């Protein structure tokens, strides 16, 4: 593909050139149709060509595209009111940026400035981005080794083990950061009680709790916020991916006293809060909350996982099914590259986590009929793989 001549080898590529998409379907340059369980790594949250988002973008383009936050803008004001109206309790201030990594970078600075401390505790298995600060909080050594030294004073605790978190905290700890459901490491769901225990521990120690819901938030898990499954709110919440229906945007939601610790000029973003992203963001939030997408995520996620559990009974090469809503991991007993290519042949796009986990992040508009087709395709590909392995064995 010609893109490879110019973009280096930074991305794991698949042999599909996507031309257009509608809902949970995309078409390649040859006209072949695919059910999209990749969803732009979770960005296509409200579906491709969502009419609310498309209309908002078209209307905003005819007004103005960029207004720096040193000036006021009514489109941005509407988005902020909508977002804060939906935010977890106590998070009434927000910094608008452009990506998940930027949302994390802002959170690091806000927490350090507010507490006056430098120490950071993240989780083993975490993924928070690849910019220098976010990368420092990301666990997997393969992403980090070539770029050391990174930001200092980061400790990693075992996800789900409150005593490990307690042991990682010291007198200079500014915050604990975690994903309520770890995405990159294979859809690892926080065990019951863990988020509540971390919240209690942070309160006891006087340190901040940051939730990274860049992948798990905004209805993906069948609740607006993943942390709602455990009735726990953070001090800072990081969002991005589908927040603006596919237009680049990130947001760092904070308690007002935390943001008040920042002085003018200490953190800003040239493109953050631009009217185009804000118009799309308001439309995406309305689609989620007014068009039944969160409810559909819960319902379709249940149907999907039930179907996958049936496949697990049939195919011994499936080790475990995990997740909530339409954030699903399928752990296999071998590498998944051939499975992904087989699914592409059958018109299904799917993600991976590591070498042996399939990751399912479809648009929240996906239908039961599409899920049935995906399950049939996966059944067929797994059968072919098992037969091939029997022959080779």
Automatic annotation (TrEMBL):
It catalyses: [amino-group carrier protein]-C-terminal-gamma-(L-lysyl)-L-glutamate + 2-oxoglutarate = [amino-group carrier protein]-C-terminal-N-(1-carboxy-5-oxopentan-1-yl)-L-glutamine + L-glutamate; [amino-group carrier protein]-C-terminal-gamma-(L-ornithyl)-L-glutamate + 2-oxoglutarate = [amino-group carrier protein]-C-terminal-gamma-(L-glutamyl-5-semialdehyde)-L-glutamate + L-glutamate. Binds 1 pyridoxal phosphate per subunit. Pathway: Amino-acid biosynthesis; L-arginine biosynthesis; Amino-acid biosynthesis; L-lysine biosynthesis via AAA pathway; L-lysine from L-alpha-aminoadipate (Thermus route): step 4/5. Gene3D superfamilies: Aspartate Aminotransferase, domain 1, Type I PLP-dependent aspartate aminotransferase-like (Major domain). It holds the Pfam family Aminotran_3. Keywords: Amino-acid biosynthesis, Aminotransferase, Arginine biosynthesis, Cytoplasm, Lysine biosynthesis, Pyridoxal phosphate, Transferase. GO terms for molecular function: identical protein binding; pyridoxal phosphate binding; transaminase activity. Its EC number is 2.6.1.118, 2.6.1.124. One of its GO terms (biological process) is lysine biosynthetic process via aminoadipic acid. The modification N6-(pyridoxal phosphate)lysine is found at residue 241. Substrate binds at residue 269. It comes from the Archaea. Signal peptide: none annotated. It is found in: Cytoplasm. Pyridoxal 5'-phosphate binds at residues 100-101, 212-215, 270. InterPro entries: AcOrn/SuccOrn_fam, Aminotrans_3, Aminotrans_3_PPA_site, Class-III_PLP-dep_AT, LysJ, PyrdxlP-dep_Trfase, PyrdxlP-dep_Trfase_major, PyrdxlP-dep_Trfase_small. Belongs to the class-III pyridoxal-phosphate-dependent aminotransferase family. LysJ subfamily. Involved in both the arginine and lysine biosynthetic pathways. NCBIfam families: argD, PRK01278.1. HAMAP family: LysJ_aminotrans_3. Homodimer. This is Putative [LysW]-aminoadipate semialdehyde/glutamate semialdehyde transaminase.
């Amino acid at each position: 593909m010609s893109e490879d001549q110019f973009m280096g080898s930074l991305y794991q590529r698949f042999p599909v050139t996507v031309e257009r998409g509608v809902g949970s379907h995309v078409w390649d340059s040859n006209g072949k149709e695919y059910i999209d369980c990749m969803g732009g790594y979770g960005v296509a949250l409200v579906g491709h060509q969502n009419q609310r988002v498309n209309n908002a973008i078209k209307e905003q383009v005819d007004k103005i595209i960029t207004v720096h936050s040193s000036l006021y803008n009514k489109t941005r004001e509407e988005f902020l009111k909508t977002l804060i109206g939906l935010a977890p309790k106590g998070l009434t201030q927000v910094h608008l940026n452009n990506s998940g990594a930027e949302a994390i970078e802002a959170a690091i600075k806000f927490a350090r400035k507010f507490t006056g401390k430098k120490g950071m505790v993240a989780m083993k298995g975490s993924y928070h981005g690849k910019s220098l600060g976010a990368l420092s909080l990301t666990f997997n050594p393969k992403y980090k080794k070539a770029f050391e030294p990174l930001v200092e004073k980061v400790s990693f605790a075992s996800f789900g083990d409150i005593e490990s978190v307690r042991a990682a905290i010291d007198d200079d700890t500014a915050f604990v950061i975690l994903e309520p459901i770890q995405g990159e490491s294979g859809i690892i769901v926080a065990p019951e009680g863990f988020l509540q225990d971390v919240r209690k521990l942070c309160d006891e120690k006087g340190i901040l709790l940051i939730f990274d819901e860049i992948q798990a938030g905004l209805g993906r898990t069948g609740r607006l916020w993943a942390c709602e499954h455990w009735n726990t709110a953070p001090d800072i919440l990081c969002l991005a991916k589908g927040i603006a229906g596919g237009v680049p945007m990130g947001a760092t939601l904070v308690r007002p006293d935390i943001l008040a610790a920042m002085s003018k000029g200490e953190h800003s973003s040239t493109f953050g809060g631009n009217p185009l992203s804000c118009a799309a963001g308001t439309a995406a939030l309305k689609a989620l909350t007014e068009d039944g997408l969160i409810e559909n995520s819960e319902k379709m996620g249940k149907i999907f996982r039930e179907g996958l559990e049936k496949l697990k009974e049939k195919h011994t090469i499936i080790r475990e099914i995990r997740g909530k809503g339409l954030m699903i991991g399928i752990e296999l007993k071998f590498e998944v590259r051939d499975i992904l290519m087989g699914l592409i042949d059958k018109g299904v796009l799917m993600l991976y986590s590591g070498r042996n986990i399939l990751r399912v992040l479809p648009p929240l508009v996906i239908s039961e009929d599409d899920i049935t087709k995906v399950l049939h395709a996966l059944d067929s590909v797994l059968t072919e793989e098992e037969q091939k392995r029997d022959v080779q064995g």
